[in-house]
Amino acid sequence: SGAPPARETRAPFRFDYERFRRSLRHPVRGGRSGEDPETRARRMKIKEMMKFAWDNYKQYALGKNELRPLTKNGHIGNMFGGLRGATVIDALDTLYIMELEEEFQEAKQWVEKSFDLNVNGEASLFEVNIRYIGGLLATYYLTGEEVFKNKALELGEKLLPAFNTPTGIPRGVINLGRQGTRPRQHSLYGMSWSWGWASAGSSILAEFGTLHLEFLHLSELSGNPVFAEKASDPRPGLLVLSRVEKPQGLYPNFLSPVTGSWVQHHVSIGGLGDSFYEYLLKSWLMSDKKDSEAKKMYDDALEAIEKHLVKKSAGGLTYIAEWRGGILDHKMGHLACFSGGMIALGAEHSTGERRQRHMELAAEITSTCHESYTRSETKLGPEAFRFDAGSEAMATRLSERYYILRPEVVESYMYLWRLTHHPKYRHWGWEVVQALEKHCRVEAGFSGIRDVYSTPALHDNMQQSFFLAETLKYLYLLFCEDDVLSLEDWVFNTEAHPLPINHTDSKA
Ligand code: DMJ
């Protein structure tokens, strides 16, 4: 308990753009000489899938948030507070990395001409941050084009009022409307709310804990410390979290932004908790390992998870259970499958017995998630799978059988491939490509499916923007050389948008 130790003044980020560009050049210009032709062909296939997903979005839904590939129209939804073009922003860096040049120009033009930030509506702070701010920042870093930076900064300003709470921990929903200019003009500008479904006005761990990477870059690029101050330095969120008592060292998912205490004891490394842990580790990596406070919190959290939540099924599968007020729920969500990649990345930067133990744990979890795919008829995994009542890595409830083009399993394959070079990860990634082609590809794009255990697939008529941002990007990187967006130089935000690491030494 007590305040975390005072931290040294943050050194400015120093980027070696040339190095980044060099690393990009290899994959996109046809790979290395001597490259295995099958690997190249597989990469090109994934590039074709991206072009297909983009072309259909452009044709039927440009300017809407997502494509509805069956009805061939657009979907707007209510997550982004009137902002449009979620798929454009999420796709930008993937198009660029895959060298889909014409398509990248189309997306860029939409940002220049049609991306309107003068909106008025209630947005998810988390979703706007990870998809819009993350996508714009990454594209700026990759291309150096000012328009992306300027839009990210302008949008970032609109998010700041969400932090005006007694603890500094933001609420989940923010109104993006403009500030009223006349004295009695009504405006909801800057009003923020907690989600109606979040118990007792609480903020969600994975939401307020998933701002740090992007906000640090907003301060870096604007020269305005306000972003870093709000989300990171002195980190009101982490200060509160470091003081509040954690049941058995675990972090529950719901916290009051007014009192700074837990509202409900539900712990999960999947939905509601997931990217909080991810951003602790990646904050440390992005700071070139200077942010020791974040690293300590990551290590302690993982230790508690290992001790209380990691279990082995009767059939020998390792999984991470959820925890409800002391009672284990033997269930893993698809979202929790990102943790194989995260734990492997953490292990890579550990030493000795711990390194080996965590690398094994990461490989076992990734293998369990692979089982959740192979045990289905479609070879795609369900939204959640269980280890109870005789079930092993399969959904037991009708409501958990769907697959919405989520990336977490291929994300872990990508990390495990990069960190171990075991060929099974490329093999498993290719299985996913084939399953997507067979069951999710329709005439006008890719669609989620309602039941992974039955064929022919029943489509949900939605091409999620994260399919272009994450699923296809991670699959592509799985078949690239390691120096393409090298893990030494970049961290991926939780929507797979790459942000550069702050190398303070000159190791170019
Ligand atoms: C994405 O928006 C991000 O990966 C987020 O962290 C979790 N949910 C989706 C993908 O499943």
Automatic annotation (TrEMBL):
**Binding-site positions, Ca(2+):** 494
- Cysteine pairs forming cystine bridges in this chain are 337-369
Pathway recorded for this protein? Protein modification; protein glycosylation
Positions of transmembrane segments: none
Broadest EC class? hydrolase
Query: What family does the database annotate?
Result: Belongs to the glycosyl hydrolase 47 family.
Name the chain's protein.
alpha-1,2-Mannosidase
Gene that specifies this protein: Man1c1
